[in-house]
Design a protein that fits this description.
Elements (H helix, E strand, L loop, with lengths): L5 H17 L9 H18 L5 H10 L5 H12 L1
């Protein structure tokens, strides 16, 4: 059974999953808990994909693959609308 490479999974995350997680959220009044629950989903994907529980490794991988956390994206979108 062939599995997708990390590059393919990250590309699918960026093109399909993140947009679904973020759809219209910049107009909602979200608490920090709501924002971080979306970050948790992305962080867990990286933990499982790279077989690590070390958040410094997860953050490094996210930077290398240019993946922003949903909370950061929502904050940027909300600030740009004002």
């Amino acid at each position: 059974m062939a599995l997708a490479s990390e590059d393919v999974v990250i590309q699918l995350l960026k093109s399909k999953c993140i947009p679904v997680l973020l759809y219209s959220l910049e107009v909602c009044n979200l608490s920090k808990r709501d924002l971080y629950s979306r970050d948790f989903a992305v962080n867990r994907l990286f933990m499982k994909l790279f077989c690590t529980k070390d958040m410094s490794v997860v953050k490094c991988c996210q930077q290398m693959f240019h993946v922003e956390l949903p909370s950061d994206v929502i904050k940027k979108r909300s600030c740009s609308k004002i």
